[in-house]
From TrEMBL:
Protein name: Nucleoside diphosphate kinase
Nucleoside diphosphate kinase-like domain ranges (all copies): 3-137
Catalytic activity: a ribonucleoside 5'-diphosphate + ATP = a ribonucleoside 5'-triphosphate + ADP; a 2'-deoxyribonucleoside 5'-diphosphate + ATP = a 2'-deoxyribonucleoside 5'-triphosphate + ADP
Record PROSITE patterns: NDPK_LIKE
Broad class of where this protein is predominantly found: cytoplasm
One GO CC term on file: cytoplasm
Residues at which ATP binds: K11, F59, R87, T93, R104, N114
Quaternary structure note: Homotetramer.
Cited function: Major role in the synthesis of nucleoside triphosphates other than ATP. The ATP gamma phosphate is transferred to the NDP beta phosphate via a ping-pong mechanism, using a phosphorylated active-site intermediate.
Similarity section: Belongs to the NDK family.
């Protein structure tokens, strides 16, 4: 249902450090249902398209390099008020500013390598989910 889904990626740093299980556990314990999920790796073209909104920013090259350096876990999550509640659960972009107990506070190393992505609007959640998953992969 529109408004009840968000899209997330557990970023390469979180996968490299072995945090997949702990992060998914916290996501489930916070009331999100997994609608779609896979381990995948973005190509440079994928990451440039996914983050096109940031292409003029000074960190764009670094961001694309980081997001393509290893596998990610991509997932679609369902919950009432999913987009906003998930961004609360992950915390501020910079882990130094993230609230205690949030996923970024616990698992992120820096503003660039910040463990997890969360969509910033219902519209982008739908676009980002469709970027990674075919309809038959959503449950
Ligand atoms: P995300 O899209 O990954 O959920 O993160 P966000 O909304 O909290 O932050 P956004 O402004 O959309 O930035 C996207 C990602 O770019 C990297 N970044 N690096 N070096 C820097 O100053 C910087 N700023 C942003 C982060 O990986 C951020 O999550
Ligand atoms: Mg963002």
């Amino acid at each position: 249902m529109a408004g009840n889904r968000t899209f997330t990626m557990l970023k390469p740093d979180a996968v490299e450090k072995g945090h997949i299980g702990a992060i998914l556990d916290q996501i489930n314990a916070s009331g999100f249902r997994i609608v779609a999920m896979k381990l995948t790796q973005m190509t440079t073209a994928d990451a440039e398209t996914f983050y096109a909104v940031h292409k003029e920013r000074p960190f764009f090259g670094e961001l694309v390099e980081f997001m393509t350096r290893g596998p990610i876990v991509a997932a679609i999550l369902e919950k009432e008020n999913a987009v906003e509640d998930f961004r609360t659960l992950i915390g501020a972009t910079n882990p130094e500013d993230a609230a205690e107990g949030t996923i970024r506070k616990k698992y992120a190393a820096s503003v660039g390598e910040n463990a997890v992505h969360g969509s910033d609007s219902d519209e982008n959640a739908a676009i980002e989910g469709a970027f990674h998953f075919a309809g038959r992969e959503m449950f």
